[in-house]
Amino acid sequence: MMLRVKHHCCRKLSTYTLFLITLYLSAIALVAFVCKDIPLSPLFKEFHRDTNKLSQQVSDSNTLRLEEATQYFKSRRPADSIKHYKREFKGQVDIVIAIVTVKRKSRQTFSTGYLIQTSAALDKIVRTHNTSFNVTLFICNTETKDSDHSEANFVSAYIPMVTKHSDQSERNANVTVLQKETKDYIYCLSTARMLTPRYILMVEDDSVPNENFLEVIQQSLTQIGERKFAFLKLFYPPKWQGFALEISRVLELLCFGAIGGSFFLVFHHTCQLHRHWKRSLYVQYIVGFLFTVTVIYLIGRQNIMTFRSRSRHFHSLHPSPACCTPAMLYPLETVPTLVDFLNNSQQLDSDVGLDLQINEFTQTFDLPGYQIEPNLFRHIGMISSLSKPIKHPEEFL
Question: At 318, is the secondary structure helix, strand, or coil?
């Protein structure tokens, strides 16, 4: 009789364990099914190999954003808009935003409208932000044939614009695309410097800001304090922000697992599941740990970070990698040295990318550069201004 009862209890225990295993595996399968349609998740590329279809989705989204941005400008009076930027500030200007733009040379017959979208988003935020910053904005048009840049001509009715005219060296056919990019950047940076702000924010014309980007900048500068630094990088390509075999990324994933394991212990105790599943606390913790790690990895680090971007309190500072300059904030005192460094590089006929030159600048002068994570800007430029092939559309969905 005793053996029969014991056998019954063991069978009941095994059945409940099997139920929990099935439940957790079903939950993982459901997460995987959802994540296969989420861009930048590990499963997305496996289920979406038709780049033409993805490109069309990006184009449709771009068209909708362009329509909204165009309507935004048309709802404003040009004279009042320009007057807003010519007003006198009480005290020093804190941030001057320079939108660097050039006409894209593409086989596409349509206008990308990147500049209009970026300008509309920044104009709206500059007018309505809740920070203590005095902020102003201008367009830096580096298209030598300014009459050809229809987007810049349209936006210039609402936002002040300066236009760079080519010199003899740039009319030289030997000037490469990368060299012209650096020369344009020097010009726009120097123009912004003439307004003597505390900081200069250089934004490429295909970089749309988050609504709270000024609040995050203010908090980040407070965090840096009196330390000298070269720049704050406000964008880094999301495709390189996923989980990887890097110590910091592995530790981050393990931390998620540790939190998940602890939550599982609390969940089992609260729901009194431990009465049915009489495994040790250690086993319950490991199950929760592995479940959480699997789910977080399937969702993707980039998509997890979108939740952090909602509040300025969830952003963090990291040492900056070398790549990319869509949105960079410079302290005014750094700019003269940086401009001289970039000019010297040009005199040496350097054909190195602008981002790598800026990274070399930080190493030469031993000035740290910081990256804010999550990104404060979204890169929408699937069609590059550097005459490169169209980029993979997944980055822009």
Answer: strand
What long-range pairs does 46-53 form, CB within 8 A, spacing at least 24?
48/394, 51/392, 51/393
Cβ contacts of 119 within 8 Å, gap of 6 or more: 69, 73, 99, 139, 155, 158, 159, 205
For the chain, residues with pLDDT lower than 50 are 1-13, 109
Residues 386 and 351: beta-carbon distance below 8 Å: no
CB atoms within 10 A of CB 241: 18
pLDDT digits (tens, 9 = 90+) for 243-275: 988 899 999 999 999 999 998 888 777 766 555
pLDDT given for residue 147 in this prediction: 62
On whether the CB atoms of residues 231 and 370 are closer than 8 A, the answer is: yes
pLDDT of residue 173: 57
Q: Please, what sign has the CA dihedral across residues 205, 206, 211, 213?
A: negative
Q: Cα dist. 239→242, 300, 329 in Å?
A: 7, 10, 22
What distance in Å separates the CA atoms of residue 54 and residue 274, rounded to the nearest whole number? 47
The CATH number assigned to the domain with range 51-241+306-396 reads 3.90.550.10
256-262, long-range: CB < 8 A, 24+ apart:
256/292, 256/293, 256/296, 257/289, 257/290, 257/292, 257/293, 257/296, 258/289, 259/292, 260/288, 260/289, 260/291, 260/292, 260/293, 260/295, 260/296, 261/285, 261/286, 261/287, 261/288, 261/289, 261/292, 262/288
Read off the pLDDT of residues 303-322 as tens digits, 9 standing for 90 and up.
Answer: 999 989 989 999 999 999 99
Residue 109's pLDDT is 46
Contact 235/324 with Cβ under 8 angstroms? yes
How many other CB atoms sit within 10 Å of the CB of residue 321?
A: 14
Among residues 191, 167, 203, the alpha carbon closest in space to that of 339 is found at: 191
State the pLDDT at residue 317. 96
Rounded CA separation 329/335 (Å): 10
Q: In this structure, are residues 104 and 385 in contact, taking their beta carbons and an 8 Å threshold?
A: yes
